[in-house]
Amino acid sequence: MTTALIVLAHGSTDSRWQAPFETLEQRLKERMSSPVRLAYMELCDPLLETVVEELHAEGFNSIDILPLFFAAGRHLREDVPAQLEALRHASPELSLTLLDPVGQHPSFADVVVSIVAENQRDSSCTE
Amino acid sequence: MTTALIVLAHGSTDSRWQAPFETLEQRLKERMSSPVRLAYMELCDPLLETVVEELHAEGFNSIDILPLFFAAGRHLREDVPAQLEALRHASPELSLTLLDPVGQHPSFADVVVSIVAENQRDSSCTE
């Protein structure tokens, strides 16, 4: 069976903060051939633990976790690895791989450049 | 004079958390023709207010602020606009534009898809 992907956001009690992550999950589902799910580290549903257990119940034993974080602070160095370790302890057959956060990927600079370029074009059209 | 760009990160007291933002700033400087600077909203230097004042002193009266945030939570709806309003009050000739956060841009989904695709290629090479 293919590896499933979880895109992991921090989480917030602010529902307006969650909406863009749900939009991103929808865009990813439309574009990816392998299963993709959104999960939150804390503060709102669905939590990482819940989504891992659901994917496991669906038959996935290999899950990659891509953090929607700009940088690896304490959450990604300590808290999330501890969450994953607890999940592995509960289900030793699970292979859980924590990827580098998206903000550390070289192509992330490309998208920022393209957003800036697009904004400059829009500004010159309206001036 | 052209418009300057500030890429705005949240800020942290964790120096390891800051490093990827500095790398991103360097990549942007190499790729953009207009001036670009990194600033933090709070917790570490250089702060937004400092960078705006420095760019203003260099002669820029028009500055776009691109938030390196995934979503517009309370910080981008309330705190940053209040910081910008105080800066405008101090220097009425300043034109400060707060752009949508990068995570809400449609092309952000593209970069996540490309990161996932690259990871899958890497995995299949090592299996």
TrEMBL record, chains A, B:
Membrane-spanning intervals of the chain: none
Highest taxon in the source lineage: Bacteria
Listed GO MF terms: lyase activity; metal ion binding
Record flagged with keyword Cell inner membrane: no
CDD domains linked to this entry: CbiX_SirB_N (cd03416)
Keyword Lyase appears in the UniProt entry: yes
InterPro entries to which the protein is assigned, alphabetical: CbiX-like (IPR002762), Sirohydro_Cobaltochel/CbiX (IPR050963)
Entry keyword set: Lyase, Metal-binding
Name of the protein this chain belongs to: Sirohydrochlorin cobaltochelatase
